[in-house]
Amino acid sequence: MPRYFIWTIGCQMNKAESQWIASYLDSIGYQACAAFQEANLVVLNTCVVRQSAEDKVLGTLGLLKGLKKEHPGLSLLVTGCFVDSNIEELKRRFPHVDCFFKPGAYYELIDWFQGQGISTLGQEINFSKSSPSPCAFVPIIQGCNNFCSYCIVPYRRGREVSRPLEEIVCEVEALVKQGIKEVTLLGQNVNSYGHDLPTNPDLADLLTELNSIDNISRIRFLTNHPKDLSQKLIGAIASLDKVCEHVELPVQSGDDDVLRAMKRGYSVERYRKLVLAIRHCIPQLSLSTDIIVGFPGETEEQFGHTFSLLEEMRFDVVHVAVYSPRPGTIAWRKYKDSVSLEVKKQRFNKIERLQTNIATEINSIYQGKIVEVLVEGKKKGKWYGRTRNDKLVFSQGGNDCSGQLIEVKIEKFSPWALQGKVVN
Ligand code: SAH
Ligand code: SF4
Ligand code: F3S
Fold this sequence. Notes:
The protein is 36% helix and 22% strand. The chain is of the alpha/beta class. The protein folds into 3 domains: 3-115, Methylthiotransferase, N-terminal domain (Rossmann fold), CATH 3.40.50; 132-364, pyruvate-formate lyase- activating enzyme; 370-422, CATH 2.40.50.140. FE3-S4 cluster binds at residues 10-11, 13-14, 47-49, 80-81, 152-153, 156-157.
């Protein structure tokens, strides 16, 4: 049996797409393996959100060039956001790659296999549960229409295209039949789900439909855009019993001028009011955000506004990134990358230190409490999984807890995780 290895970096969308590619390869008779060196076919699922991600892709492409010299029979396929519209140019630059296909353009992958004489016609290709985890990602909307000035994603993933609501419901029902208990609905901006569909359903409608599926325990969704998150959605999260109390709401900056230059479409005050409204309706909520430090022209004072907002909002999780100019984006064309790397790193570290303290305080509340965890697997002798509000929990005891909803009494906490004993 030929063997495949899929290398994935980037966001959950890439993970979901790699899951699909794995299911497809399984369905045409390939077998997964654990390393490049053991594979007959390698798929690189790439990310270019920052230069550091792109550098990793370039490094891996270089490594595989060497490997291909040693094993000329190795096939190399590349997908993800590294693949731009100029595929001919990519082929010229990387002649050792057998096929480039854009994110989600599976028909091109299928065409390539057909070109190799591997007929896949008549095969039923479906998302299938290829890992023992009870959690699955389900893309609901592809692309992004927002064009935040720093972001390359709309250039690589194109404009928004929502999947029909019925198709998503069928897919989730099929996953649940295979034992999936938790789904995470994915999109660059899940709050704009459905605007391009004939009957204009929205995310709240989709959540309502999914909530009525028997045997599904938890529903999550990401990422939200603060300018599009509606009161109707807040109501749905609060009232639907399977929708988890966790919202990812990237703010990016706590300064109005920076937000304007980023083309985010909201002010700090509007963001603050939105968070208050969500917290008012969903008291157990955990909230995550994304921040970019060192956006072109960001002054100490403007950075100070971001810092104060984080102190005020007390997020459960903050993903901080150092601004990285992305060729082709509006910020890359209009602004000089004026904040030095040294200052960017200082600001990055300052936020990390603040957030470590805040997250420690927030997580200390769980000490001695019993929480419900959906176990995703075992690492170093401990079960790991998440609470409904997305706290990572490691636990000991219990028999085979894999894939189960268990109760854990918390005995220890850190800024990043909780630890305890299984109590049922
Ligand atoms: N759609 C999501 C995020 C997509 S990209 C949203 O609207 O928030 C994921 C994160 O990468 C972003 O939230 C942002 O914080 C970061 N990011 C995107 N482009 C970046 C850039 N050029 N430099 C640094 N960080 C960036
Ligand atoms: Fe990028 Fe903005 Fe779209 Fe998010 S909403 S993917 S940050 S352009
Ligand atoms: Fe990266 Fe593309 Fe996701 S650039 S973050 S893989 S949408």
